[in-house]
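Quick question, first post here. What does this chain look like in 3D?
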Amino acid sequence: MTTIDSPGLDLDAILDDPAIEVLITCGSGGVGKTTTAAALALRAAERGRKVVCLTIDPARRLAQSLGIAELDNTPRPVATIDASAGGSLDAMMLDMKRTFDEVVLTHASPEKAEQILTNPFYDALSTSFSGTQEYMAMEKLGELHRQARDDGRWDLIVVDTPPARSALDFLDAPEHLTRLLDGRVLKLLLSPARGPLRVMGFGMQLVTGALSKILGGQVLTDVQTFVSAFETLFGGFGERARRTRAALAGPHTTFVVVASPTADALREATYFVERLQEEQMPLAGVVVNRVHASSLDLSAGRAEALAEDLAATDRQAERYALRRHAARMVEIDTEQRLLGRFRAVTAEVPTTYVPDNGRDVSDLAALRALAFRTTWTGREA
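> Answer (accepted):
Ran it through. Tokens below.
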């Protein structure tokens, strides 16, 4: 068994720390990130925290694992947890369109809100524009954080991000949406006949005429109407996102990178670690899921040799078991090499290794078992 020299990650200490109000998991697809987030939320709740778990991942594994029929934009209580320590657990899944609608209804006058919500351009913006999901994730996280501090309903928010490099794009959401909504073209559309643009006169007519031909007259009218109604919300969007981003970089937030011992997953984990460090975000450490091990001290080569010795005998079951063990030892050796390379570039990052148990996590009992394994702080992988 190879020992990986790295500081251990004590997740129980993080979950028990009342100063930690937001825990964000990120990682590539297929590494158990969603179930890790759910397991940590469950463990925190059963240790006495008041937790809400927000998933941005459109997959519905979280609802299934928590025993909830369906998750939506409203936090739903998980009633089957052990609440003897005084904790609670709610869960929800980001609904991008509904979150955008709620922002408009909250921050615009009824008249302006009606103009925005019924505008065809708004429908496209709130469902299809690149970066909208990440910005709405920032909005929802900020909303939950403010609510938690105002009424004390929750004292820990666990966020499960999408399974892709774009998982951290919400860190840039303030810039992206501000550039979109406050861009030069939209300003021209908003104010073609006032201020210094009046000097342009015939030139502006040519611009709007050209846009009308490209987009179509009705589309251009829809965009102009939308931008005019949306103008009063520009500043609020950017300011709220900047405040939330500042909170993410503060002492009350921590990030956990989730990986598995495969080349692709560890490459992505390295990216997440480096990105968080570059952004000066508080990184708690890395959880490496599904690490294989064997209690039998028998190398792959020796197991293969013993299997060959049994080829001419009737002990085929033993021969099959030896060959399976040899394959497992090859897998373990490969994982150890990959983890060694990973640790070479992340040597100072606390890491915990979760043993593989060969079973899917599909209910609360399995989540609880995963939570117990995830808190293992041993240094052996």
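The first helix runs from residue 11 to 16.
The two ends are 8 Å apart (CA to CA).
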